[in-house]
Design goal:
255 residues; alpha+beta; Aminopeptidase; eight-stranded mixed β-sheet; four-stranded antiparallel β-sheet; 23% helix; globular; disordered N terminus
Length: 255
């Protein structure tokens, strides 16, 4: 799985674990298998290489699906240079004229935990997400630990109130969208859309080519928003780190 005798070798700091035969959170009557690796020391270069191959980072854990015959999960990325705003996206930007944004190291406060739980309670009610309040310790392990120098946190404020937290990794060639949550009491501001638009803006400012969107299943409602940020590329499978990743253009007719 790993190259040896290079700066990308994980030994002896990686712990391997495969989680299998769990119900798939996306497709009914389907089992999932996830390759999970805990990595204690990570460079930006390593994070870039595995993200290019479809791996996702949560804390010190890097995961990607290994579901045997099922290949519905794909990895998407936005072509930053080719991206052009739609009319609705331009409106979202205009509605946030007075929204302020600051960038920080990922952190843990009571304000973070309360906003995170508020967002997930809302999604559980509206979209039937499974929800259990996250503890401060769980939040730290998932979103603060393992960020190293490349993990950042974008904070969005309206009238001096924290309304959105967008966790990202700034990589060699792009930005990886780790996780975003926001205050559902501010629907007019389309904060989920706006935060991704800001990621595209930030990537272009930094001279980066891509925004990595993580997992996607065509036709799955919760992932449909990703299809609105075109042009997109889709990764073929989840190649090993010693294999060359193959990304191909993906286009959907947006009406």
């Amino acid at each position: 799985m790993y190259e040896r005798n290079t700066q990308y070798s994980l030994r002896p700091t990686a712990k391997d674990c495969s989680v299998s035969d769990k119900p798939c959170p996306y497709l009914p009557n389907t089992k999932m298998s996830v390759n999970h690796r805990q990595v204690d020391v990570v460079s930006q270069s390593f994070a870039s290489r595995v993200t290019q191959r479809g791996w996702r980072r949560f804390g010190r854990n890097y995961i990607y699906p290994e579901c045997g015959s099922c290949t519905e999960c794909k990895s998407l990325r936005i072509d930053v240079e080719g991206f052009k705003h739609s009319k609705s996206q331009k409106k979202a930007i205009n509605r946030n004229d007075d929204t302020t944004i600051s960038i920080h190291e990922p952190s843990l406060t009571q304000e973070h935990v309360e906003l995170y739980n508020k967002y997930h309670a809302y999604k559980a009610k509206r979209d039937a997400w499974h929800h259990k309040d996250v503890t401060p310790a769980e939040y730290y392990e998932t979103y603060v630990n393992g960020a190293f120098e490349f993990g950042k946190e974008l904070r969005y404020y309206i009238d001096d109130k924290l309304v959105c937290v967008d966790l990202i990794d700034i990589l060699d060639d792009g930005i990886s969208a780790v996780y975003c949550y926001y205050d559902p009491d501010y629907p007019r501001f389309s904060l989920g859309t706006y935060s991704l638009l800001y990621q595209i803006h930030l990537a272009k400012t930094l001279g980066l080519k891509w925004v990595y969107l993580g997992n996607w299943i065509e036709g799955y409602k919760a992932f449909a928003y990703k299809e609105k940020f075109q042009p997109l590329e889709v990764l073929e499978g989840f190649p090993k780190i010693v294999e060359q990743p193959i990304w191909k253009p993906w286009m959907k007719n947006l009406r």
